[in-house]
Amino acid sequence: MAAAYLNAGVNVDAANSVKAGFAELLEKKGVTLSRKNAFAAIVDPGFSRFKDPVLVLKSEEPGSKQLLAFENDRVESVCFDMINHLVNDCVCCGAEPVAIQDVIICGTFEAEIVKRIVRAISDAAKQQGCFLSGGETSEQPGVLPKSRYVLSSSIVGIVERERIVDGKSIAEGDVIVGLESSGLHTNGYSLVRRVLADNPGLLATEVNGRPALDVLLDVHRPYYPVLKPLFEMRAIKGAAHITGGGIAENLNRILPNNVDAAVYLERYRPAAIFSLLREAGSVSDADMLRTFNLGVGMALVVSSGELDGTLKILERSGCPAFEIGSIVPGSGRVRLRGNIGWRQTHSHWTPWSWSSSFMM
Known about the structure:
By secondary structure, the chain is of the alpha+beta class. The protein has twelve helices and twelve strands. It has helices at 12-19, 23-26, 65-71, 75-91, 111-127, 189-198, 212-216, 224-233, 272-281, 285-291, 307-316, 351-359, and strands at residues 53-60, 96-106, 131-139, 149-160, 175-180, 206-207, 210-211, 238-241, 259-264, 296-302, 321-329, 334-337. It has a six-stranded mixed beta sheet. Strands 1-4-2-3 form a four-stranded mixed beta sheet, covered by helices on one side. Strands 6-7 form a two-stranded antiparallel sheet. Strand 2 (96-106), helix 5 (111-127) and strand 3 form a beta-alpha-beta unit.
């Protein structure tokens, strides 16, 4: 049999037919200047609005959470995870998100799944005040198994040079504010999947009245809408998105080398899902702190005089926030003090009770 791309597992015609419908999801009148099917997106970022604009660039992917999401047909939620995570990283320096490019790699091009992915990414971008300007969809049979997807995305943001938030002004006596996470966000899922593999009944239990699977796949909280007014007020000296590495390995990235961040763990409010994973996997507190956000998805540093106003604005915006620490003399590191008060509010669960139920 003669060799052909179709016989190799790639249907170019089918992919082109689906991609032709993406234009309506990508166009933003007056901003996207490229024609349909162009080799690259031409975008007007609105430089005229700025006196001295600089670009902010970032790439991101949703980690192994995407495997759990696709296995359970939560396509849209993991797309929002990816974009919310991406925008959160971009805006930590005070930037305004502008345009997003996506990458979809799949073992087999499934038209309906790819349509759902692109639409969800586009919708997520719009909710964060930016837009999907294009991307790449690549079918790679033999590289990925059938129905396996790997997602990635990149963003371009813009910020006035004099309004860059980079932590340089952080000083002794400033206060650290923790913004509540919506759950695990998009980090720690390799450990989550290991815990699930060792405890297959865990997904069937309930966490505060909800299936554990739903809680594990809660969408990564977007912080840009609540941070925007604070950036406009210049209230934020530094912002750290708490992702892989936990607070110790993220908050330190914005500290000057003459101060430390003292974080008081007893002020944390970890959701019940963290307690459940800790118990089910016999995970040490040190590993929990380094793997998960433990309820603090974003940390802000503000002056003590801005604390009350910052908390009020965040409260009005619907984002629970609380003081978690202070800036003290040091050498640019994070000091974790005290112990976390784990919430025991999930359904009573032990490996034995679940293994027993499966033997019935």
